[in-house]
Structure formats: C-alpha cells, structure tokens
Amino acid sequence: MNRAGRVAAIVVAIVAGLLLLVALFPWGMLHGIVADRLTKRFGRPVTIGSMARLDTIGFTPTIAVRDVRIPQADWAGSGDFLRLREARVTFPVWPLLSGTFQPRDIRVSGLALALVRAADGRTNWSRPGAAESGGASTDLRGLTVRDSMISYRDAKRDRDARLSFVSDTKGLRASGTGTIRGALVRLAFAGAAVTQARPGPWPFTARIDGAALAMAARGTMDRSLDTDRMTLDLVTRAADLKLIDAVIEAGLFGTQPVALRAHVRHDAPDWTVTGLTGTIGRSDIAGHVTVMKRDGRTRLTGAIASRRFDFDDLASDAGRAAARAQEARIGPRVIPDTPISLANLDSTDGTIDVRIARVVSAGGDTGVTGLSGTLSLDHQKLTVAPLAIRLAGGRASGRAIVDQRGGAVHPTLRLDLAMIGSRLELLAGQGDVAGRVRARARLTGRGDTIRSAIAHADGHVGLVVQDGALPAKYAAALGFDAGRALTIGDDRQARLRCVVLGLPIVQGHGTVRPLVVDTSLSRMNGIGSIVFPAESIAIRLTGAPKQRSLLRLPGSASLSGTLSAPQLVVPRETKSVGNIFKAIGRAITGHQGPLASDADCNALARQALR
After folding, report:
1. Strand partners, 184
2. Strand 557-561 vs strand 536-545: parallel, antiparallel, or unpaired?
C-alpha cells in the first residue's frame, strides 16, 4: 500500500472510530453537566437522581432521566417548580453539534409542574432576567404522559388552574378547574395523538366553562403542538369583556355581557382575526383585525362596524354603579368622565376604522343618529380623524387628539369639532322652539378623562341658532314684556332671529362673550360665566321689548344651576307688587325705558364661531 493509501486508511479508521464512539457514547456520564446547565438556566439548584442510556448503539439514543427536582423561584412561594419521577427521551445526535436539542419521542411519568407568574410579569419558567416567551413548534414524533399534574398561578391576570395531563395513542388530554378574575371555571383541552406520522394538520379543541365565562375553540395546528402556526374558530360569552381579556391579554376593558365569535389564524408572531361578530350588551359589532408584533411593538389594523350601538354598554355593572354614585355625589354632568389615558398602550400602534350606523341609549333619544371615524395610534398619540357624527337633521365633524408622548403623566386632549345643518327642534326632541343650529368647539386641556381635561382646558366654544321661531309669549317674556306675555294668544308665533353664545375658556373657566337672544318681539343679553368641571352657570340676563308695552317689568333675571339642570331665577323685586305698580305708572307716562333694536346676528355669529 502506498503512502496515500495508508493516509486514507488512517483517516477512515479515525472517522469510523469517532462514529463508533458517538454511537456507543454513554450519555449517562453527562449527568453532572446537564444538572449544572439546568441550574444556570433556571437560576436555582437542579438535582437529577440518575441518567442512563437505555439502548446500546446508534445515533438516535434513548436516555432515561429519573428523580429530577427544580426548586420553586424564591419570589414564587414554597415547594418545587418541577418534580419528575421519570422521563425517557429519544433524540438525534447530529443536531447537538449545532447546539440544538430536538427530541423525537418523550415518555413522561410522575410529572408535577407548578407554573407561576407574578403581578409584575415575571415567570418562573423564563430564564432569570429574560423576557417571557410563548409556545414554539416541535418535531416530536411521539409524546406519552401519564400520572402528571400541572398547576398555574397568575397574579398579573388574576387566574389560576390545576390540570391533570395525559398523552398516549388515544390523544392528548388535559382537564381541571380554576378561577379567572374570581370566576369559577372548568378547563379542558384535547388533541390528536402526538405523532408526525399522522398525515395533515394536528386537530385540537379547548374549552373554558363557567357561569361568568365560557370559551370554546376548535382548530388545527400545522404540526402537533405547534402553537406558532394554527387556525381556530372561537366562540365565547362572558359577563364582562374584561373576563375575556384575562384569557387573551389584549388590554380590553369592562363592559356589559358579551357574546362573540371569530375565525383566528396565528402565524407567529402575528394574529389575524376575521369574521368577528357578536354583541356587547344590546349593541352589535362586526369586523376584523390583524395583530402584528415587530421590534417589541404591537400594531393593530382593522375595522369595526355596528348597526346599533349604545355607548353605555362599554361600562360594566361595577363601572355603572361607580358612575351613579359619582352622579349622586356631584350631580349629573353633560361632559362625560370617559378615561382617555394611554399609559398602558406604550408599545401599541395601529389604525382602526369605526362605523356606527345608529347610536342608541336606554335613557332615550341621543340626538346622534350615526358615528364614523378612523382611530390612529402612534407611540401614545391617538388621532381620531376624520371624525363624523350624524345628528338629527345635520352633522358634526372634525378631529380629536389624545397625546401622551414623552412619558407624560397625564394625556393632553385636543378637540376641534364643528356642527352644521342641524335643527334645534330635532336635537331637543320638541317643537316649541325651532331654528337652524351651528356650533364650534376648539379646546386643549390635560387630564386622564374627558371631563378632567376640559376642566383644565383653554379654547373657545360657540353656539348659534338662526332663522327659527318660538311662541310669541316666550319672546315677550324675554323682553320682560309682562303685558304682551299675559295677553297674547297661545297659538301666536314670533320669529327667532338668533341665539348667539360665545364662550372663551381659560383653564376651564368660560366667560360669556357674547350671549344674545334676539326675536322679532324682544332682545335679551347676558353676562357671566360657565365653569368646568362643575358645569356651573352664573349668568345675569337683561331684556327689553322692541315695541311699546302695556306692562313692562323693570329688572333682570339670573341663570344658575348646571348645564344639565339650569335654573332661571327672577328676583323677588322684579315681580313684586311695587314693581308692577311702577311698571303701570311708566306705561301711563310713557317712560318705559329704551326699546331694543335688532342685533347684527351675522356679525355676532361670526364672532362666536371663529
């Protein structure tokens, strides 16, 4: 044999020897190394009673590991995180060369696993200091589990469960009981036998059953236990949307009872929800949404539509009770106390189109017939634009911005809304006073709710009613024309030339500038203020007729109370017997004071709506 042949023979012998060494390798001798690696992985001492190779030779060995114990994390309570009587694992050798462990078959008996998540989001199964991770795909060709239990405690989402877990040739099954936000539930999961030999996707079902919460999912994973790639149909009902959020962790809020169904596709890290339909309280919703996760941020894209929607359904019974208690304490308010803080949405962006065909309310007609807008969230800045509100006989449009960028403790609310084309009689739901309504609000304030933001707002609000009509006796009373108000017929009408209110606001304090009510029979002027958040009114009213009066009362009136409960007070001296005799005397002598002239309604309207 020449030199080259001898070298080749030596190389072949070395390779053969190495292959034989790998094929015969006594994996049990790595017992200490494996325990040490697991100790470093979990940050607490891991003990392994024994580890031995069960087969003799081959490149897919089977290892038996017995009496494994991993203590519980110090912050998670007493006891053990994991106890294992025995696990038999079959795996290919060659992926280990690249640092990858890919088990082919696992047989487990006597497993007790206690999973814990703290209120701050730490988990006892994650590497210390590492972020929590979700499920992953698997190349398992077989999974056998018997005599095993899994417990779970989650302080962050207020949920816990205890499940028995079995996997064999009949399939994978887990069942048990638990609580979700204090609601008792029964839990069940079932899947096909875990084997790659099974053709096609891996089917599964999952159920949560309880009086307050029920969810049922039926679907398939692309491979057995591959939660990263799965399709499912979901049906759920709950006493409160927040109960569903405790399961899916989407940052939802408390509502009236919910019934929803949807088709869901998960292609990690993205979720696509289509065919979303259902009800919240007496409101119906339908739509779709895509959830994409990139670079530590979540982006939502989708659309929600409703044929009939009651915004009161977006409050739970507890929320409604709190609102009623607050109203009993401070009185009713026109400006809602709706939360607008974006503090919990620091890693969420997205665009959602919202369309509501009809807005309803249990309290009666809202005057709002429809609503549409596009919600765009970008790094804690929420823009609702264009915002369109359909009103009875008209519409309002504009934009709203909630800005909490830069780590601001409280968000800044910016409103710019204009109302045109509506009719007062349609908005008020009665026809005594009619007229064309226009309004404009431009406000900027900081606060965690709409009400608190308006309480600290600067800006301007304007309201104009023109080209209308009202009962003639009302018009006469506005000019303190007692004679005409008492004698004119109930069916007589007067022309409402204009009602103009301008309200510049500084830090929630609005100054009436101007307030004019001009009719064909009289003119009334007002000075004073409207102050938020109390919505308190303090306005002094003076009026005069435009014609000579049989009985004109001197004096003034005051408008007080709140926007939701205004009170008109005529001073005692104005309607006293003495003042009446004075009015009669002035009528006889002709010295009743100056008559009112027509207001320049168009100029006043431009000033108020600037």
Report:
1. 179
2. antiparallel
The string over 383-397, giving b where at least 16 C-beta atoms fall within 10 Å of a residue's C-beta and e elsewhere, is bbeebebbbbbbebb
Q: Is 20 exposed, middle or buried (0-12, 13-18, 19+ CB in 10 A)?
A: exposed
The pLDDT confidence band at residue 574, using thresholds 50, 70 and 90, is: very low
- Residue pointed to by tokens 């390798």: 25
Q: How far apart are CA 230 and CA 268, in angstroms?
A: 9
Residues 6+ apart with CB under 8 A from 78: 72
Asked if residues 146 and 133 have their Cβ atoms less than 8 Å apart, the reply is no
Tell me: cis bond preceding 533? Omega within 30 of 0 counts: yes
pLDDT 10s digits, 10-19:
666 676 767 6
Nearest to 180 by CA among 135, 134, 212: 212
The neighbouring-strand residues paired with 273 are 264, 289
SS3 (DSSP) at 214: strand
Please, what sign has the CA dihedral across residues 88, 92, 97, 100? negative
Nearest to 142 by CA among 102, 194, 187: 194
Q: Which of 361, 372, 373, 370 is nearest to 282 (CA)?
A: 361
520-547 per-position pLDDT tens digit: 999 999 999 999 999 999 999 998 888 8
Q: Is the pTM of this model over 0.85?
A: no
